[in-house]
Amino acid sequence: MKPSINPLRPLWLSLGFFFAGLGFVGTVVPGMPSTVFFILAAYFFSRSSQRFLNWILGLPKVGPIVRDYRNGLGMSRRAKIFALCMLSFFALTSAIFFIPVVWVKVLVLGVGLVGFWFIHSRIPTKEIVLAQRQVSEAR
Predict the structure, then answer these.
(1) Are the C-beta atoms of 132 and 72 separated by less than 8 Å?
(2) Which of 13, 15, 66, 96 is a plausible cystine mate for 48, CB 3.0–4.6 Å?
(3) Per the confidence metrics, is the pTM higher than 0.90?
(4) Residues 86-92: contacts with CB under 8 Å, at least 24 apart
C-alpha cells in the first residue's frame, strides 16, 4: 500500500523555507525578530519534511528555543524580558522619531501593543511552566 501524498506539501515546504529565510534575515537585522520565524518554519516543515524540521531543530542557537516552544515551555524569563524591551524600544523609537505620518505612528504603536500583549500574556514563561510541572508530578 502506497502512502498518500499530501497535495499541500509543496506549499508547506515553500512556507517553511520562506519563514526560515526570514529567520536568518532577523538574525542580522536589528529590531527584526528571528525566533518567531524559525518557529513558523518548524511548523510548516513538520507538515512537509522531517529532514528540514530536524535541520531547524538542530540549529545551534535557535534549535533549543524552537524545541522548548514546541514542547509547551514557551520562552525563558530572560528572553521574554529582552523581547518585550526590544519590541517596546523599536516601536516607540520608530513612532516618535522616524515616522512623520500620524496614522502610521498609531498603526506602529498599535501593532507593537498587540505584539507586547501576545508575548506577555499568551506565550508561557519557561521557568513557571517547569515549576508547575514539578508541582503536578510531586502530587
Answers:
(1) no
(2) 13
(3) no
(4) 86/31, 87/112, 87/115, 87/116, 87/119, 88/112, 88/116, 90/31, 91/115
